[in-house]
Amino acid sequence: MNEHGNGGPVFEIGVVIPRRAVQEKDESCDCACFLVKEFEKVGFIVERVVGIADEFIKLAAPLETFGRAAAELQIKKRTLIGMDLQFEVEEVEAFVKQPDGSVFSWCERFQCYCHLIYGIVNNSKSVKTLKFDGKEIRWEIGEHLLQKLESENIVKQVFPLHDEKKRKKLLRSWALHWWDLTSQPIDEIYSYYGAKIAIYFAFLGMFTRWLLFPAAFGLTLQLIDFGSLRLVVLPAFFIMVILWAIMFSQFWKRKNSALLARWPISSAVGADQGYKILGSRQASSWQPPMELLKVFESDRAKEKEIFQRHEWLGRLMRFRNDAIIIFSIICLQLPFELAYAHLYEVLGSDIIKFGLTAVYLFAIQYITKIGGKVSVKLIMNENNENTEKRADSLIYKVFGLYFMQTYIGIFYHALLHRNFSTLRQVLIQRLLLSEVLENLLENSLPYLKYSYKKYRVRHKKNEKGEVREKFQFTSRVEKEYLKPSYSASIGEELEDGLFDDFLELALQFGMIMMFACAFPPAFAFAAVNNVMEIRTDALKLLAILRRPVPRAAATVGAWLNIFQFLILMSICTNCALLVWLYDEEGKWKIEPGLAAILIMEHVLLLIKFGFSRFVPEEPAWVRANRAKHTTQAQDICYKKLLRSISGGDKTLEEDKKLE
Amino acid sequence: MNEHGNGGPVFEIGVVIPRRAVQEKDESCDCACFLVKEFEKVGFIVERVVGIADEFIKLAAPLETFGRAAAELQIKKRTLIGMDLQFEVEEVEAFVKQPDGSVFSWCERFQCYCHLIYGIVNNSKSVKTLKFDGKEIRWEIGEHLLQKLESENIVKQVFPLHDEKKRKKLLRSWALHWWDLTSQPIDEIYSYYGAKIAIYFAFLGMFTRWLLFPAAFGLTLQLIDFGSLRLVVLPAFFIMVILWAIMFSQFWKRKNSALLARWPISSAVGADQGYKILGSRQASSWQPPMELLKVFESDRAKEKEIFQRHEWLGRLMRFRNDAIIIFSIICLQLPFELAYAHLYEVLGSDIIKFGLTAVYLFAIQYITKIGGKVSVKLIMNENNENTEKRADSLIYKVFGLYFMQTYIGIFYHALLHRNFSTLRQVLIQRLLLSEVLENLLENSLPYLKYSYKKYRVRHKKNEKGEVREKFQFTSRVEKEYLKPSYSASIGEELEDGLFDDFLELALQFGMIMMFACAFPPAFAFAAVNNVMEIRTDALKLLAILRRPVPRAAATVGAWLNIFQFLILMSICTNCALLVWLYDEEGKWKIEPGLAAILIMEHVLLLIKFGFSRFVPEEPAWVRANRAKHTTQAQDICYKKLLRSISGGDKTLEEDKKLE
């Protein structure tokens, strides 16, 4: 009966309850027992594990339970004929199976778990009194059990569990499969971690594969002395690199849509599903505020106006926020960064330089933290369409911060001082730094956290004076609970650890692209780094961290736009670099008038290509109208359609039997 | 019973048969009588009109006939719930009505007419012998009647007729409504001429309205002397104009999608419907070759590879064609144009200049004709997805020709010789020329053609020695037959008269934008011209030409891309103009190295933004897969859906009755 069809049930969710000092005698009143019973009533398969410091309830669910929950949630799934329809338990045959043969993807399963766990309500006619460690809790009629227990601090956490069997398989076939270089079992990653993480690794893999070509070119440029041809080879390298980057970003889009066609993800739906653990229960991909939709129903004349006002207000709000961020970056961060770069340039002694860098690194930590918090606050005021859009908005803003922080010093050395030796030094430093230090930090920090938590648990027990031999963590679930979760170093509310991974990639891309002419072998550094990055990231996800909450969004999102922006930037910066490289004697003078006109031209070109992002091609009311219509259509006919799809399949099977 | 509900039937199609010398006695054998009977059998309302030189069969159809034809053609129409479903006569209520209250749009009606007229087949079991003017024609079993008669030259033409009532109404409310400036009855234009022409006029109207702002700015710049501020005002004007153009192109896209939401046009379907009169019967919007689709069905493993090969082959073919065109423009046309411009610059005498221009204009006619023919031939080898895509491909190629022809001389004066007075002269000349001459030519040429044809008919009759008084053209249909059709001056096979109209608009846009800094009042010229253009184009369509064959495509198509390309160009050219304007003493020197780097930068930026057009984001097989799936879905459920939509409406009506 189990979905996975491999023996025992697979427990995928863990609920953490503190271990009680006093065991309740009356089992019907004991909170933990009661919770287990309620879970069983809902349809879960439950296993209780008593750990050292906490108690754990592990949950699994058979297909029927998922089916019921999915039908209640009105989850839309892709059917065999390619249309997305609401799930119905009776017509399972009509829906496309996942690559691993199961009906629901991990993301959908997680959504169902959340719905079922947080949907337990007191339906009886009396208030129930529960006891926990001597405390009494009144479960009122109509109250949600889990919310109640969470507010009373009895349920400490609900978190997704690793599936040991699959995890070990992935560990072998993915994380420890070093000799494969860039190839990865993407389909298996998708079914274990969900679309977003699989897309990240597919992106990383393709990027690394593509990197090998400019890496080889860059290395030959460095190693072979071209003599008098040198003047021609460098611009050729520049043009090649830009063309390479342009082609990469376009071919990635193709690859992405090919992946989406392979995985049964409904492209429209799902942008908002299952990201936050606490019931984000908006089903449709684009949800205009409810009051607007009501107006839409009642008054067709007013609809357009109201929708347009809502659309433009939202856009202005976002514009204002972006302006605030950009303004504060330029006015606060830029002088700071420039001051550091200038001091670094001016100072003679290496020791003072080292001290300065330490102070700088310390200060920068605070600045990014503050910047991230401000961005998160600003975004809360925006009416972004869904969580993924909101996350994108945050990504743009925070990337602005990191962009300044990472590159402004390099720009200073490269463009203002024309100091190419310092530039190359800084580039090598940063690339090696990111290669060694970040990978080290990324992997050791979670492990240290985990060790510290383990130590604390032991320590507490010690204080209570229990026997020492018992301290082996026998239960795997407790170990997993102590592992840190996959979270971003900035703005945990809106983004998970993918933010850090993508940020690293984007900063690396900017570094190698924008200064390609100054230091061609950077591509080789990056390629080596990324080949390692694939495996260390995999290892981090599989061995060091908790299983992350799945996200349904199936594109790279804002990051691709950032990559494209970096390509644009690199066209301009490399041209400037070339000018300064060839103009060794400083003879090429640009009159201020000419410079002003050139700057104006570039700004206008930027606006030309940026404006279409600011104003979408389709007014919001047209979009809302269409969305309303299609959902209406699917609501009308989905049952009939489903029957004809799965019915058609059955007749086919019968035909086969007759033969 | 008539669709339009205004008294008599509206005859919309005319079939032309030469007038016979000998009237056949046996009516059952007479070809014309037989044809009329067959038309009546199909369900048409038929009227025969005997003209002076020809005989005409006018056809109208009641709603039932259209309904039957639409169901046979499996036309997809928008239903009340917004989904596009196959038409069914019984469920008329489920479909959205046109703005004028009829069920079918003019484009759909035309498609039905064609289907019915060309679908008459000899279904009887014997060969029929028809007589016409003494000639005997054998109508074989299973043969199409109209094709047979056309090949025998008995049916001379099938053409759409004007609807007198609506035409007169439009003439009053649109063509002769001068004082409205830019506002037009777009919905009525849509229901009379179809989407493509309505979109053209909506575009022209919006463009003209938007033009008023830079026109006012440009005029003030010309009239008021800013003194020392002059140096600041011109760049400000330039920036304003570019921003204006960028915003215009984006807001037009919004307007276009709003129009599509207002008219019940299915956005996906319809790109290929009803353009050519001779049955282009591909129903779906994107039709990969049949053999490919069959492979798709049988072998899912091979599908991707084959589709990808097909996709890339087509793309390479198009790329080769584009390369041929660009190469020949640069190698053949460019020297010719430059030679003319140079001679014009060098020659002193005005008379020789005039002669030179005459020779040039004569030569240019041939060049564009040849260029157009070569382009059409090249396009025939491309496997474009549908006729609209093919038309777009032609537009790009031919616009390349016209671009060179129109602007290269101006570039020569402006950029090479820095001769601003000649530049301004040329601009004024061209703008006035386009304003007066083109409008004159556009309207007088068709009228002259019409008059000549009338004269020829009279002349022939005269030779035959008939009485003179009879020569009044009494029948309106004969007059319409003699009117010229709405055809392009280039490549009649692929484009209709819209090509010329859009070309004029695009060339004007390029002229005013690319040299905005050299001659700001050009915008005012253009605005005045366009206000007139709206009415003269309307007059041309309503009074001078035959009713054009409707086209279903509902966007501006390739022209918007051309507009955006012109905006890009104008950023660069205006910057160059500004440099030369401010650098009066010629002091600003650009080193060749710097110039090379700048040119490289601009080329790379162009590639960055052009590449995404070359490689689409979605592989062809993903697209084909989805298209197959959605049509499959709609085929399964469309009847059920239709019933529930129109059934739902009925119950609503019953509820109202009960109240």
UniProtKB/TrEMBL annotation, chains A, B:
Extract the InterPro entries matched here: Anoctamin, Anoctamin_TM
The GO cellular component terms are: membrane
Q: What Pfam families does this protein's entry cite?
A: Anoctamin (PF04547)
Name where it's found: Membrane
Where are the membrane-spanning stretches? 197-219, 231-252, 323-344, 350-368, 394-415, 505-531, 552-582, 594-611
In the bilayer, the protein is annotated as:
Multi-pass membrane protein
Q: Which domain of life is it from?
A: Eukaryota
Q: Where is the Anoctamin transmembrane domain?
A: 189-629
Q: What keywords appear on the UniProt entry? A: Membrane, Transmembrane, Transmembrane helix
Q: Would the keyword Membrane turn up in this protein's UniProt record?
A: yes
Coiled coil ranges: none
Name the chain's protein. Answer: Anoctamin transmembrane domain-containing protein
Organism of origin is Flemingia macrophylla
